[in-house]
Amino acid sequence: MKYHLWVGYIFLSFFLFINPYTYSSTNSQPITKAINGTDATLYAPLLLPWQAAIKQNSYDSISCGAVVISEFWLLTAAHCNPIDIDEIAIAGTSLIKDGDFSDLDQKYQFKIKQIIPHPDYNEDYFLNDITLLRVERSLYEVAQPIKIATIEEQYLADIEFESSWITYGNSPATVIASGWGDTLEFNSPTTLQVITLAGVPDNQCNGLILNDDQMVCADSNINGLIKDVCRGDSGGPLIWQNKSNIMDSDKGIRLIGLTSNGQRCSIRINESENQYNQLTGQYTQVSTHREWIEQQIRLHGKKPSFSLDDNSLRPTLDTDPFSVAKDIPDNNEEIIKNTYRSGGNISLNWLFSGLIIMIWRRNLTKRYKYNS
After folding, report:
1. Between 20 and 30 A from 307 (CA), which of 3, 93, 204, 334?
2. Which residues pair with 62 in a beta bridge?
3. What angle do CA 194, 195, 198 make, to 5 degrees?
4. What residues have CB less than 8 Å from 56, skipping those under 6 apart?
5. Is-contact 131 120, C-beta < 8 A?
6. What is the rounded distance in angstroms from the CA atom of residue 244 to the CA atom of residue 150?
7. pTM score of the predicted model
8. Nearest-CA neighbor of 129 among 23, 26, 24, 210?
9. What pLDDT is attached to residue 26?
10. How many Å separate Cα 23 from the centre of its chain?
11. Ramachandran quadrant class, 41 (left: phi over 0; alpha: psi -120 to 50; beta: rest)
């Protein structure tokens, strides 16, 4: 092992000892995380008609998010354990009352007929963190699908992220995440939360990225304001807009990610002064799995000609979410402000640990590539 790596590990061990937050801040975990989002119903009754959720087993609560991609099929995250989820998916509504589904109309509830996790899902690194769900009746009764980005469109998104992301400054909102997950308040929200974010270039994404084709990264686009998804948002959509198709019926909206992993929300807030040294939110890059999705639907859905390029999978939207979604909630009292300001101080502890993490990640990435 090279000398600088030995030195790096010694320093890392030292800072792990003196800072109880360091390890949890550098180890990706399936803690899906919505802070400082806004109610989707502020903009339209059903702003995101592809948004879905999975009921928690034995309790009226949301276990994970999901996404409608065709008439009988949804996507969610593979780390959403089948043992923890019920056989009910919910779609076509922006309102789900946590703790009591008695008023939830049956037309929004769909029995899950089949669960197909990706066979190569790796729980240590969240590789292939994607699962297909098949329901018994048509989702089109109340919902619409979203088109999955192609490899070429993901490349365009990556270029946009590279040119627009600004560290220690405000970035334009290039992606939107959504869900009914934890908001760090007493109860989970009844109304679907929409969180505008900025796509983060792969080379500036803090976390265990072992394969750039596996993950899309996104973080708050507002300097000094923590925004993120939280526990309960796993498997929900991360959307991006292909501006060359903005005049289409779907406004050019594409599904590029599924909420996968990132920093614990409690650490996000407790260590908010270190906004740019925390784990970046990571989302399963869906375009990578287009072929697998098509194969599974053709096989299990008995549709040998199924294609994700089918124009029937394009929704018709009256409202463009990227045109209306707000970067900052109107009620400033509810905003959890980050104490960081441009030109402020960052502790030496974080500077040293950040340096060692970079060295460790680079070495880990090389080991993975050469041993795969």
Report:
1. 93
2. 55
3. 145
4. 62, 63, 84, 85, 86
5. no
6. 14
7. 0.81
8. 210
9. 34
10. 22
11. alpha
What token pair was written down for 219? 């973080």
Kindly report the CATH number that applies to the domain delimited by 3-34+147-288+323-329+346-371.
2.40.10.10
- Amino acid 132 reads L
**Is 28 within 8 Å of 210 (Cβ atoms)?**
no
Q: Which CATH number fits domain 46-145+290-313: 1.20.5.170, 3.20.10.10, 2.40.10.10, 2.30.30.40?
A: 2.40.10.10
Token digits of residue 370: 């050469």
The H-or-E segment that residue 321 falls in is helix 321-324
Q: Give the model confidence (pLDDT) of 77-129 as tens digits.
A: 999 987 778 899 999 999 999 999 999 999 999 999 999 999 999 998 899 99
Instruction: Please determine whether the domains at 3-34+147-288+323-329+346-371 and 46-145+290-313 fall in the same fold group of CATH.
Output: yes
Q: What would the mean pLDDT of 167-172 be, rounded to a whole number?
A: 94
Domain positions in the chain: 3-34+147-288+323-329+346-371, 46-145+290-313
Distance CA 28, CA 125 (A): 8
Q: What is the mean pLDDT of residues 276-295?
A: 94
Instruction: Say what percent of the chain tops pLDDT 70.
Output: 76
Place of tokens 């970067």: 327
| Contact (Cβ atoms closer than 8 angstroms) between residue 52 and residue 74 | yes
pLDDT tens digits along 173-229: 999 999 998 876 657 799 999 999 999 999 999 885 666 789 999 999 999 888 989
Q: Which residues contact 244 (CB under 8 A, 6 or more apart)?
A: 252
